[in-house]
Every structure is written in structure tokens, then in C-alpha cells.
Design a protein that fits this description.
With about 240 residues, this protein is an all-alpha fold. About 70% of the residues lie in helices and about 0% in strands. The longest helix has 29 residues. It is globular and about 50 Å long.
Length: about 240
């Protein structure tokens, strides 16, 4: 069987991988959370367009699916974990953990574990083609990267406990049973896309009003809307 490795979609996926690798190096060698943020945003762009291009050019393939998950493990798992680990190390001492570089900081590694489990589950779950079961790893990665950016800009100073809690909660959300809507439009009409259009409109408002704080706010909005939607669907199913 002849396998085409260097298709346009796969090259975009590899670009996603490289952005994640460079971001990780920038964080661990220079502590450059600002550069890491923009690299992870670029990685997310590549991650979106590799699938879009594969469908457009009819170049979807099993190797592309596996390669996408491997790239996401770096850009949405390893690099964001490095961000949160840096935030934990740079946080002020806690009343229960005087050394923020101590073993408690390794709790943030749950983020990488959650990402690996999330991606593995996605690859074998055919029910996640129109919506997600658990938080998508790119969304989790961008959330962590945005916390790093706000910290680097002096706009946010998270206490040690908040960093550990944010990492653990994000890891749990990725493997949770919560059904979360996907931003995959079914045409351009309002029917079938109402929630997506409303969410994107809310995102624009948040960006215009909150600026750099918009990404974590959008993350929280996405989780809350998905949770409410999931609970309502479960209630309707129980009443049927």
C-alpha cells in the first residue's frame, strides 16, 4: 500500500507540530510565554486548516488522522503543560507549599495526561464527528496559553493554588462525558447553525470589550454553554 506522507494537509499538520515544539523550547529555555502564546495560536490555525484542506482537496486519510493527533499532543498538550508549569514555578509561595518548584507543581502534568486520553478517545469514537465528548484539546491549549500571555504582560497574577486547580480542571474537562458543540458549520444558513453563529457573535463582543482577557472568557463561555446544552439534552431525553 502506497502512503502519501507529504500532502498539503499533512504539511499543515506538521506545521502545527513545529509550532508546538518551538513554543515548548521557548518556554523551557527562556520562559518566553509571550512568544509561546502566538506560536500556539498559529498552531491552532494550522490545526483548523489541515482538516479543512483535507476535505476540500479530498485528501483525508488514516495517516492524516493519526498525524493530527500526534501534532496536537505537542501543541495542545506538551506546550500548554509547559506554560502552566512555568506559571506554577513563578507563583508566590503558598501557605501549604513554600516551595512552588516542589513536587506539588507536577500536578499540572495531568494536563498532558488528559490531552493524551482525549486524543486517543477521539480517534476511535465515531460519535464525535459533529460534536465533541469532552473539551477539545486545542481549546484547552489556547486557554492555558492565554493565561501565560496575561501573566507575561503583567495583566494577571494567579496564586499557586489557582494554577494547579486550573490545570487539573482543564484535564478533567477533556476526558469528561460532557457533550460540547463543534464549530463545524453545516452550510451558511441559520438553520442548524444558530448556536454557532450566536457563539461567534458573543466571541466578537468579548474580544472588542475585554481585549487580551477575551480568550479565557471565551473558554469559560464555551464550557458553560456546552454544559447547559448537554444538561438540557439529557433532560429532554429523560422526558421522552
Amino acid at each position: 500500500m502506497k502512503i502519501k506522507l507529504f500532502t498539503i494537509p499533512n504539511l499543515l499538520t506538521l506545521s502545527n507540530l513545529l509550532c508546538g515544539m518551538i513554543a515548548t523550547v521557548a518556554i523551557l529555555t527562556d520562559g518566553d510565554l509571550h512568544l509561546a502564546f502566538w506560536l500556539l495560536v498559529l498552531a491552532a490555525v494550522f490545526d483548523f486548516f489541515d482538516g479543512f484542506t483535507a476535505r476540500l482537496l479530498h485528501q483525508s486519510s488514516p495517516i492524516g488522522l493519526q498525524l493530527d493527533s500526534l501534532a496536537d499532543m505537542v501543541s495542545s498538550g506538551v506546550a500548554p503543560t509547559a506554560v502552566m508549569l512555568t506559571l506554577a514555578w513563578q507563583a508566590g509561595s503558598s501557605w501549604w507549599a513554600a516551595d512552588t518548584a516542589g513536587p506539588w507543581s507536577w500536578i499540572v502534568l495531568l494536563l498532558a495526561v488528559g490531552t493524551a486520553l482525549r486524543l486517543a478517545k477521539f480517534n476511535i469514537d465515531d460519535t464525535q464527528r459533529t460534536e465533541f465528548c469532552g473539551l477539545p484539546s486545542p481549546a484547552a491549549g489556547l486557554f492555558c496559553a492565554s493565561l501565560g500571555l496575561l501573566h507575561a504582560e503583567g495583566m494577571l497574577s494567579l496564586p499557586y493554588e489557582a494554577v494547579l486547580l486550573a490545570a487539573a480542571a482543564t484535564a478533567w474537562l477533556m476526558i469528561s462525558p460532557i457533550r460540547m458543540f463543534a464549530l463545524k458549520f453545516h452550510g451558511f444558513g441559520w438553520t442548524g447553525n444558530r448556536l454557532r453563529y450566536l457563539f461567534l457573535g458573543a466571541c466578537v463582543v468579548l474580544i472588542l470589550t475585554l481585549g487580551a482577557y477575551a480568550i479565557p472568557a471565551i473558554f469559560v463561555l464555551y464550557v458553560v454553554v456546552s454544559l447547559v446544552r448537554w444538561l438540557l439534552q439529557g433532560r429532554r431525553a429523560a422526558e421522552a
